[in-house]
Give the backbone structure.
Amino acid sequence: MTVTAPIPLPARARRRPWRPGSGRRLALHGLLIGVALLWLAPLLWAVYTSLRPYADTAERGYVSLPGVISLENYERALVGADLLRHFLNTLLVVVPAVAIVLLVGAAVAFVASRFSWRWNIGLLVFFTCGSLLPPQVIVMPLFRLYLALPLPWPLSDTGVFYDQIFGLITINVLFQLGFCIFVLSSFMRSVPSEIIEAARLDGASIVRILWSIMLPLSRPGLAALAVLETTWIYNDFLWALVLTQTTARRPVTTAIAGLSGEFFTDYNVVAAASILVAIPTIVLFLVMRRQLLRGLTLGASSG
């Protein structure tokens, strides 16, 4: 009597055993896709509206299939709102503000996290609480302060902080500094003390330790903060609207308001201008997404 071995099924014909977690994973992915589409829906609708002339939407309605698709609204937004000038103003505010926030924040975080003295915890709490203050609470006092606070001539042509690029840089630095110190202190606290002690035994000064040791070791956190701070300062609308009066000196986020007329507003052009204003932050996130995720992950693990 001969026994024949069972014929093995092909690899594609084999059924994978059902795992209890498969349904949960599928539901989680469906939920994440739905949330992503929900968040992208306004942006996609703005893109769709910006590609339609106003005459087409007036005839067919905004919720309709397009009759004409063109880039005319983008050209009108660039010319009508003078976006290039306002983009330059935003660049003059964002670049110095982010550089100052990272440099000063790293120095204060280094002192608050690596030195044992009486007021180091109080200093960290002071800056952290300052970042939690709602900006709407101090709009009027800050407005009056900017009108009265003197500023030398090279930085101001009116003699005060109000309606000046330097004034916008200052307020953005002050409001973003607390969060930067809080995040960098967790990075610097995770650096082994032996490295700092070895550097001090070799005769390195405090400034040299900060510049040559702490900043390179905190590079992931600095990269993540650079992306976040650039996005937040770039998207600032309140301070740019309250603390500036001259239209030619306002950042790009407030330039869209110039497209709204007293009796009529072309929302197709406004949508095109909004897309143009949002493009730099989207490009920045796509370019720096790895550094951002790496910095946030290391910050969570080190804290």
